Amino acid sequence: MSFCKSVRQECDAIWEDSFNHPFVRALADGTLDEKVFRFYVLQDAYYLSHFAKVQALGAVHAKDLVTTQRFAKHAEETCVAEMSLHEEFFGLLGVTPEEHAAFRPAPNAYNYTSHMYRAAFTGDLADTLAALLPCYWLYWEIGERLKDAKPGHPIYDKWIATYGSEWFGSLVQEQIGRMDRLAEGLPEERIQELAEHFRKSSLYELKFWEMAWTLETWTAEEREAVR
Ligand SMILES: Cc1ncc(C[n+]2csc(CCO)c2C)c(N)n1
């Protein structure tokens, strides 16, 4: 069985919990509290700005020019996605520049991005991609599942359209194929390390919904220390 098929199976219960998370369900049926979505979008803008940098680290780790080019291109596309989140969703939600300036990452957004940097800085391209992959792949599966959902809410309709697009599907397939090729023939010990990165990211994805749903915070002291 390919690496991706195997880790996807191993993480199935975690992924199912994401699909069934009250945040995702409420987004799909249009009942999600805008305060919760706003919290999510601000945290996601932070997440995306770091995700792009980890993709750029993938470009650094790449062993051939085409792979460097692809990761650099993906990083650029994530920057564009982050900027359009800013422009579109912040505008639609009425997020003020002051509010954005006062932003601090919530614990799970901080922990998730820290995990991705750790995989990228302590490992190679396979480690980096194993940590990045659940992000692309889970959202693609969510996009597929929600394709026919009609929240009837302009912002949530737009969010669903973004992840249900064909463009996004080909990006995910490209990375799944690359991950399988990188994992091919590696010793079992290395496979287990890569699987652990993937599993942790899958958990952080699940906790990202929970973080927004509960408006997760630090203690006052911690909050001052984290940016
Ligand atoms: C917590 C969180 N996880 C995954 C995504 C989805 N996502 C982020 S970057 C990227 C690649 C293309 O830009 C994709 C699919 C998200 N937005 N937020």
Automatic annotation (TrEMBL):
Keyword field contains NADP: no
Transmembrane portions of the chain: none
Source organism superkingdom: Bacteria
Pathway noted in the entry: Cofactor biosynthesis; thiamine diphosphate biosynthesis
Residue ranges constituting the Thiaminase-2/PQQC domain according to the UniProt record: 9-214
Pfam families cross-referenced by the UniProt entry: TENA_THI-4
SUPFAM superfamilies: Heme oxygenase-like (SSF48613)
Reaction equations catalysed: 4-amino-5-aminomethyl-2-methylpyrimidine + H2O = 4-amino-5-hydroxymethyl-2-methylpyrimidine + NH4(+); thiamine + H2O = 5-(2-hydroxyethyl)-4-methylthiazole + 4-amino-5-hydroxymethyl-2-methylpyrimidine + H(+)
UniProt keyword terms in alphabetical order: Hydrolase, Thiamine biosynthesis
PANTHER family: BIFUNCTIONAL TH2 PROTEIN, SI:CH1073-67J19.1-RELATED
Quaternary structure, from the entry: Homotetramer.
Entry's family note: Belongs to the TenA family.
Functional description taken from the UniProt entry: Catalyzes an amino-pyrimidine hydrolysis reaction at the C5' of the pyrimidine moiety of thiamine compounds, a reaction that is part of a thiamine salvage pathway.
Record protein name field: Aminopyrimidine aminohydrolase
UniProt organism field: Bhargavaea ullalensis
